[in-house]
Amino acid sequence: MKAAKRLTALAACLLAFTMLCTGCSTITSALGNIFQPHYETLEECFADPEIKAEIDAEVAASMAENEMMDAYANAEARAEGNVLIYDYTYANTVTWADESERRMWNNTFLEELEAGRSQFDAVAANIAEMYALEGVTVRLVYRNPDGAELMSYDYANPPAPVYYASVEECMADPAVAQRFVDEFGFEEFTGVASGEGNTLVYALTFMVPFVDATYSAQDAAVDLAAYCEENSGAFTVDFEELRAVVDADPLQIRYDFYDYDGTQLYSHLFTDTSGSVTSESAFSAPAATPAPAAAMTLEDYLANEDIARSVQDELNALVDDDFSIAFTAEGNTAIFAYTFGDSYDFSDEQVRAAAAEELAAGVELQRATFETMVDQLQSQLQLADVSMRIIYLAADGTEIYTADFQ
Prior knowledge:
By secondary structure, this protein is an alpha+beta fold. It is 42% helix and 25% strand.
């Protein structure tokens, strides 16, 4: 069933988070020593061919070092007045199946970029202070290979998300409704998706008779209730997109089950209130409803080999000989273990202590991003009490530094 959307969102979240952190080091290294006191603006500074060439070389080197060339065909730093602009061109064309998917991409990207505000604000403040420039800001621009602008994010004046007024408005687009059904991949039913106010409604009809002389409507209600509870993770994954594109709370998803002849057998309602999801029977023949299944944890999600493999593949694409990254979980604690390569010698205790201090300082600078990551995992996977642990290890497994975020 519909696990793909959650898997994609989690992997993309981790990838965006890692690239955001490496991007900040690009900015500081590229601008570190290029200014002279006689330059009145960043734009005037960038107009110097020698300085522009140096900046372009720094950007290219950073892109290669952080293995971002597969994602981007080009990256350029430029300036307008005192606005530092990083202009990225994707290597592959970004497309959307429909308007809702475009809004989900747009609004989710806005959230990711806002999560990096503290780092980019620090870059702007540092430049302004060091070189006596007024009103320095940062803008990030993303383009398709044909040059068409997909996103322009100015930290001084960020764009607002684009929402539907209701789920009903969103699902009124036939392309959106059909995609929701196609992505779910119902195997035993024919499915139709629609909207009623802020409720997404799936009408699911069995393709062969479900109730017969030996299996009553009451039996069907009991089994369908258990089926909905046991598969609640897949049955509620659409909240991820609905929360991104509909500015309303609460949101609901209702599953109406019909037998082959059109007789309604059961209805199950999931309600998302501020990220907290509850479920209940909305219609059934008189019968006892089984107790809900135990809540899943982040560790349970990663027990799925496909999810764990996909996440690890995304992380592996970001590493080199200097370090490796492993992502695991204990309960609802996400654990990132960074292991340095053999070229780093931490056998000396004083070296380890000094490295721990440097890592602690670096992690503290990223605190806001880590805490945002925790909130996103908790929201997107509908989990409670998510935390994050960052562990740095020497090549032989010796622990150098550990930090926890709630």
